[in-house]
Specification:
By secondary structure, this protein is an alpha/beta fold. It folds into two domains: 6-173, Rossmann fold; 187-379, Phosphoglycerate kinase, N-terminal domain (Rossmann fold). The chain has helices at 36-40, 42-50, 75-85, 98-106, 129-136, 171-185, 200-210, 223-230, 245-251, 294-304, 326-340, 350-358, 373-379, 385-388, and strands at 15-19, 54-58, 89-91, 112-114, 141-144, 168-169, 191-195, 216-219, 257-258, 262-266, 275-279, 288-292, 309-313, 344-348, 367-368. The strands form three sheets. It has a six-stranded parallel β-sheet with strand order 3-4-2-1-5-6. A six-stranded parallel β-sheet has the order 9-8-7-13-14-15, with helices on both faces. Strand 7, helix 7 and strand 8 form a beta-alpha-beta unit. Helix 7 (200-210) packs parallel to helix 13, helix 8 packs across helix 9 and helix 10 (294-304) runs parallel beside helix 11. The longest helix has 15 residues, at 171-185. It starts with 14 loop residues before the first strand and ends in an 8-residue tail after the last helix.
């Protein structure tokens, strides 16, 4: 870990501003559908409370585009956090201004204050310096614990750090950086990557960055059909991105890149569609690929079982429909088994995490990244603005 964290500085009795990621999904009845991101912030919050800090939490929610809208209010999040902490959380109706300052001034060490949605101010996403300065004025110490927003140069993640001598990472940010850095910098061999999902455009940078490091890179999901099409094969109605074919073709000569030998296809991508398993080079007209076939499942899982390090980004098929989920389930179960046998496993990307959750395996892998796009950009080898802005540790 090359960045300073809350463990490395004196935070006792301080007023601490923490950038968290409380961008949680809501159900149609206005209730929080999944509080995973709130729970992920609890270790940092609890650590600060143990050191008698006054905690000011800031986050975005959705895309209010610079306007205050009730459906994008963080007030329900404050209520849920209160329940999880068994402690009152003060909610402020804005994130800057006199009323916010009054709320914080009335609070005392050991209190938690959650400010209203940062994106209700257009200046947040514009990374506007005066907005960042106004946020910074609310505290003595800045902590970024929102890894999922670290790839965005926003006022609360990048510019704000300039107003503090020692901006540091929270415990979640620390864990994200440590596990993802392990994967891209010092993985134990055999190192196996499983890359799936819908769009090759989203994963091409990850594939290119990981190929020199892995022992094998297994392709699944919609990415399959870009590579098959690049070979001149018919793919029926399978999804692919025409503008990416040349780049997919350039990777076909990579010996570590593994493609399915068979796939499951359907004449209708819904629960009533007919299905069959065919060779990957024999997809029929008007049929679409929606999962890997049985032979490929055997090949892929045998490879994963050899791993000492495994990273998985992107589902293998249309796992949301049970009939099309066998490949994804087999990969998930094998990664869990390999983890149990001593391998380090890192899973990233929102859909991949949802896939793990569907099969009840989120707690059976070494680390589940909360990052989504930030995780992918990290695996791609890009420098994330929200991490770059934090203070480096001094080299000894």
């Amino acid at each position: 870990m090359k960045k300073l964290t809350i463990r490395d500085i004196d935070i006792s009795n301080k007023k601490v501003l923490v950038r968290v990621d409380f961008n949680v999904p809501f159900s149609s009845d206005g209730k929080i559908a999944d509080d995973t991101r709130i729970r992920a912030a609890l270790p940092t919050i609890e650590y600060l409370l143990k050191h008698n800090c006054l905690i000011v939490l800031i986050s975005h929610l959705g895309k209010p585009k610079g306007k205050i809208e009730a459906k994008y209010s963080l007030q329900p999040v404050a209520q849920r956090l209160s329940e999880l902490m068994n402690k009152n959380v003060v909610f402020a109706s804005d994130c800057i201004g006199a009323d916010v300052e009054n709320s914080i001034n009335q609070a005392k060490p050991g209190d938690i204050v959650l400010l209203e949605n940062l994106r209700s101010h257009i200046e947040e996403e514009k990374n506007e310096p005066n907005f960042a300065k106004a946020l910074a004025s609310l505290s003595e110490i800045y902590v970024n614990d929102a890894f999922a927003t670290a790839h965005r140069a926003h006022a609360s993640t990048e510019n704000i750090a300039r107003y503090f001598t020692t901006p540091v990472a929270g415990l979640l940010m620390e864990k994200e950086i440590e596990y993802l850095s392990y994967v891209v910098e010092q993985p134990k061999s055999p190192f196996i990557a499983v890359i799936g999902g819908a769009k090759i455009k989203d994963k091409l940078g990850v594939i290119k960055n990981l190929l020199p490091k892995v022992d094998a890179l297994l392709i699944g999901g919609g990415l399959i059909y870009n590579f098959l099409k690049a070979q001149g094969l018919d793919i029926g109605n399978s999804i692919y991105q025409p503008e990416m074919l040349d780049q997919a073709k350039d990777l076909l000569s990579e010996s570590k890149l593994r493609l399915p030998v068979d796939v499951m296809i359907t004449d209708k991508v819904d629960v009533n569609g007919n299905t069959k398993i065919v060779k990957a080079d024999s997809i029929e007209n008007n049929w679409a690929g929606i999962d890997i076939g049985n032979e490929t499942v055997k090949i892929y899982t045998d490879i994963i079982k050899t791993a000492r390090t495994v990273v998985w980004a992107g589902p293998i098929g249309v796992f949301e429909i049970d009939r099309f989920a066998a490949g994804s389930k087999a990969i998930a179960e094998t990664i869990a088994e390999t983890t149990k046998n001593g391998a380090t496993s890192v899973v990233g990307g929102g859909d991949t995490v949802a896939c793990l959750a569907k099969f009840g395996l989120k707690d059976k892998v070494s680390f589940v990244s909360t990052g989504g796009s930030a995780s992918l950009e990290f695996l791609e080898g890009l420098e994330l603005p929200g991490i770059k802005a934090l203070k480096d540790k001094e080299l000894k």
